[in-house]
Specification:
The chain is an all-alpha fold. It contains 13 helices and no strands. α11 packs antiparallel against α12.
Length: 267
């Protein structure tokens, strides 16, 4: 079944739900017409309004549940929320204690990393900067700073930092630095350089679904529809036997399926 056929099935199901939701209020109206009471007409009208609102809420809920990215996106948000709530602050306190006696890049990075997880972005930036002042080749501090800058929309600075990270270690963060570099380069309009970074990522790590989805976006921005469809098709492929898909991978697959539908692909 093509993705478009699946979408039509979902739409048909939603319409059927609407019709089922309207049966009860229609019966109420017919019953009121037989009795002919003005008061009952008002009551029936209120009941109809309630049923229509309830039916609309039901259809919206079902539509969200049937929209492929909805459930995996919810799982990703819950996972991130739990990660922020349950931050182990012991390493932070220990690092701050050591910094009172002797400064090291590692301890500044620990403070930056835990602070970032807690949502204290400026503290993280300050300690990343200090770590790099102490140790210019502190790759982990540079990568975290690049991530923060990218999220703040400062892609030029982020790309420069990511570039230094991947030059020092192309596999840093299991390829996350390459993905960050590609994303920032794409937003800067440097699509060829972004594709080169993603090709390197696939060579080293065997293109995962998140990377393939990003690669499809880069191809789309570069105007290469064939490559876009190719990468989306790979990202949207069914789960293979033995493949363990994290919520992020499930979300990437769902988004790829929706994107394929929009450009007329199959899956």
């Amino acid at each position: 079944m093509t993705m478009w056929s699946k979408t039509k099935t979902r739409v048909t199901f939603a319409v059927v739900l609407w019709l089922l939701a309207l049966i009860a209020p229609l019966l109420l109206v017919l019953d009121s017409m037989e009795r002919g009471s003005a008061v009952e007409w008002v009551d029936a009208g209120s009941s109809v309004a309630g049923w229509v609102i309830g039916g609309a809420a039901l259809v919206i809920l079902v539509g969200l549940l049937l929209y492929p990215p909805f459930l995996p996106a919810t799982r990703v948000r819950i996972r991130r929320l739990k990660s922020r709530i349950h931050v182990d602050q012991a390493p932070l306190r220990q690092a701050i204690g050591r910094l009172e006696h002797h400064e090291t890049a590692d301890d500044h990075f620990i403070v930056a990393q835990v602070s970032y997880r807690m949502g204290e972005v400026q503290t993280a930036v300050d300690h990343c900067a200090r770590a790099l002042e102490i140790e210019a080749d502190c790759t982990k501090a540079r990568n975290l700073l690049a991530k923060i800058l990218a999220k703040a929309g400062q892609h030029e600075q982020a790309a420069a930092l990511y570039d230094l990270v991947v030059r020092a270690d192309p596999s840093f963060g299991f390829g996350d630095a390459l993905l960050g570099l590609a994303s920032s380069l794409d937003k800067l309009g440097q699509h060829e350089a972004a594709e080169a970074a993603l090709a390197t990522h696939e060579e080293l790590h065997g293109g995962n679904r998140q990377a393939l989805l990003l690669r499809a976006r880069v191809a789309a921005h570069a105007g290469d529809k064939d490559k876009q469809r190719e990468f989306l098709t790979r990202a949207a492929a069914p789960q293979m036997d033995g493949e363990i898909m994290a919520p992020e991978a499930q979300l990437a697959r769902a988004r790829a399926r929706v994107a394929l539908m929009r450009i007329g692909g199959s899956k």
